[in-house]
Amino acid sequence: MRPWIFISALALSGCASIISGTTEEIAINTNPASATCGLYRQGIKIGEIGTTPGSVTVKKTKYDITVVCAKEGYQQATYLNHSGAAGATFGNIVLGGGIGWAIDSASGADNEYDPVVNLTMAPSSSTAVSSAVPAPNAVVLPASWPVAN
Question: Which residue segments constitute the domains of the chain, with CATH numbers given?
Answer without folding.
Answer: 3-123 (2.60.40)
